Amino acid sequence: MLHQISWSSFLSTIGKLVAFYYLLVGAIFFRKQLVAWVKKKLAMTVLLVALVFHVHAQTADGNNGLNEANTLIRSFYTNATSVMYAIGALVGLVGAIRVFVLWNSGHRDEVNRAAAGWFGSCVFLVVVALIIQSFFGL
Predict the structure, then answer these.
(1) Long-range contacts (CB closer than 8 Å, 24 or more residues apart) made by 122-131
(2) Which of 52, 111, 119, 138 is exposed most, by the fewest CB atoms within 10 A?
(3) pTM of the full structure
């Protein structure tokens, strides 16, 4: 005796068979590309699994590490700000020399653009240091 089959299960079965057929045909016709893709993904998967095992091997309490990193970054900030100001001063000196060379070589139309660019980079370094300091309350 035949059982009644619903349209949804019939269409679902047909859809699975069609998908399997196209997967099989694709595997046959594109096997070189498929093998290369699987090798690449397999290497990435092995790498990620190794990374996961390494991460799980670390200590379970991450709060201590975050607090230690926070205090370490806060202690280095003043030195980093001084380095940023020093880099800004060097960029300013190099920019002044470049603008002076352009001015003396007669490139009057490029002097304004060069001066604005070099001055803007110096101001950017100083402003970034101040904004980070005020934003994070350092």
Answers:
(1) 122/88, 122/89, 122/91, 122/92, 122/95, 125/84, 125/85, 125/87, 125/88, 125/91, 126/84, 126/85, 126/88, 128/84, 129/81, 129/84, 129/85
(2) 52
(3) 0.44
